[in-house]
Design brief:
Number of helices of chain A: 1
Structural class of chain A: alpha+beta
Distance between the termini of chain A: 41 Å
Shape of chain B: globular
Strand order of the largest sheet of chain B: 2-1-8-9-10
Strand content of chain B: 15-25%
Order of helices and strands of chain A: EEEEEH
Helix content of chain B: 25-40%
Helix content of chain A: 10-25%
Number of domains of chain B: 2
Largest sheet of chain B: 5 strands, parallel
CATH architecture of the largest domain in chain B: 3-Layer(aba) Sandwich
Structural class of chain B: alpha/beta
CATH class of the largest domain in chain B: Alpha Beta
Number of helices of chain B: 16
Oligomer: heterodimer
Largest sheet of chain A: 5 strands, antiparallel
CATH superfamily of the largest domain in chain B: HypD, alpha/beta domain 2
Shape of chain A: elongated
Bound molecules: iron/sulfur cluster
């Protein structure tokens, strides 16, 4: 049910402060576009962000920058070799 | 999906595996780690990690597959709804349609399954999202559509949001049969089992996206478990395992977050608020674990008109925790045995002809072991 793979936002509709507006994002997954609901998202997304999606709803918006920072940390961890434990 | 791929690249994964081997050598003892989440179980196999991990690292699967822990009596409830045919409500006779997540279709109840009921004429639709069930209701005003609420903390906000959307749209033919569960209570019950002998916990990444990191603190302290929130790519899982080993080397048992790009320490307050608005805790029955107080969710009186219970009375603690005859899902879900220890595994029970829910569900432990080759019986 949970798509572990984040999907990239190509369009955002609706108003974050107006629950009566159509709060929907269009995401792209390997060239297929689909709509996800934004009712429960923690942070209103913008085009280019990635969304973590569960059962048709975005549950978290992830900025590219954030993801890259995480990756950098991992790379450092990988390069550290045996010197990890103090 | 550029950045997800980055987390799988061998030039990142390989050195992490080597690090892990080195750190395990330093630790110099075997470790038992429970991965709570069914999606983790699948990811560990899918990414090939299972075969790369040093033999000292033993991963035990937890009760985190929502379909697997759904009690037979709850499946029977769904089947009863699907078999209704027509019902009178608000002065109108309408057909009843049950909308479910696909994984539930072949799960056995105590007497039948939705697949069998559907073949015999019961009205069942498979949906991908609770919102699709609401759309079905809007498209079929001559029917009452009832959504089978099965899932954990990640699913409940989507159901709450759908109920609130139904309210805003004044939809009068959409109901929810709430059988969702929460995760911390069963783990507390499970960890009291001394035979489990756990050292550490891989906390479920997307459940934590909703509930956050801090809520794991009491469990980590009470059972002295090194607890790390993990993502779902190979590098994410390795990072979490390295953090666990580092804690064990220092004799620590704290909660850490190895998935900060998706999980904030307080989780997603908006989703939490929506769940609290619509649902309240109730006692509920789990397959394999029995009745666990406060581990289920009931619809608040305020939203009673969306509760399937007003047409189909439901007692979440009725029934027993039995699995189908010969099936040992209960023990698998408690981390007591691995699927290979079940005499039916790979013989009478396969994904094509599943006997128990752990083989039916795509997130089930038995299905994962079968699919990824550990089916040599
Ligand atoms: S192999 Fe089949 S019968 Fe055995 S525990 Fe798993 S699901 Fe149940």
């Amino acid at each position: 049910m949970c798509l572990a793979l984040p999907m990239k936002v190509t369009a955002v509709q609706g108003d974050p402060d107006d629950i009566l507006s159509n709060q929907v994002a269009t995401v792209d997954a390997d060239g297929v576009s689909r709509e996800v609901r934004l009712d429960i998202i923690d942070q209103w997304p913008k085009v280019g962000d990635y969304l973590i999606i569960h059962a048709g709803f975005a549950i978290h918006a992830l900025e590219e920058e954030e993801a890259m920072k995480n990756l950098e940390l991992l790379r450092e961890m990988a390069e550290q070799g045996g010197g990890w434990v103090q | 999906m550029k950045h997800a791929e980055e987390y799988r690249k061998t030039d990142l994964v390989r050195p992490l595996v080597e690090r892990l081997l080195a750190e395990i050598t330093v630790l110099n003892r075997p470790v038992r780690i429970m991965e709570v989440c069914g999606t983790h179980t699948m990811a560990i196999f899918q990414s090939g990690l299972k075969s790369l991990l040093p033999k000292e690292v033993e991963l035990v699967s937890g009760p985190g597959c929502p379909v697997c822990v759904t009690a037979g009596s709850h499946m029977d409830y769904f089947i009863e709804i699907a078999r209704t045919g027509e019902i009178e409500d608000g002065g109108r006779r309408r057909k009843v349609r049950l909308a479910i997540f696909g994984d539930l279709f072949r799960v056995p109840g105590n007497t039948s399954s939705l697949a069998a009921a559907s073949a015999a004429g019961a009205l069942v639709s498979i949906v991908y999202s609770p919102m699709d069930a609401l759309k079905l209701a809007i498209a079929h005003p001559d029917e009452i559509v009832i959504f089978a609420g099965v899932g954990f903390e990640t699913t409940s906000p989507t159901i709450a949001a759908t109920l609130l959307a139904a309210e805003r749209g004044k939809i009068d033919n959409f109901l929810i049969a709430p059988c969702q569960k929460t995760m911390l209570k069963p783990l507390d019950a499970l960890f009291a089992d001394p035979e489990l002998r756990l050292d550490a916990l891989l906390c479920p990444g997307h459940v934590c996206t909703i509930i956050g990191v801090n809520v794991w603190q009491p469990l980590a302290e009470k059972f002295h478990l090194a607890s790390v929130v993990a993502g779902f790519e190979a590098a994410d899982l390795l990072e979490a395992l390295l953090m666990i080993i580092a804690q064990l080397q220092k004799g620590e048992a704290k909660v850490e977050n190895a998935y900060p790009r998706a999980v904030h320490k307080d989780g997603n307050p908006r989703a939490q608020a929506m769940v609290a608005e619509v649902f309240e805790p109730c006692d509920t029955l789990w397959r394999g674990l029995g009745i666990l107080p406060g581990s289920g969710l009931a619809i608040r009186e305020k939203y009673r008109r969306f509760d399937a219970g007003r047409l189909f009375p439901f007692d979440p603690v009725a029934g027993d925790e039995k699995s189908p005859k010969g099936c040992r899902c209960g023990e698998v879900l408690r981390g007591r045995i691995s699927p290979q220890d079940c005499p039916l595994f790979g013989r009478a029970c396969t994904p094509l002809q599943p006997i128990g829910p752990c083989m039916v569900s795509s997130e089930g432990v038995c299905a994962a072991h079968y699919k990824y080759g550990e089916n040599n019986v």
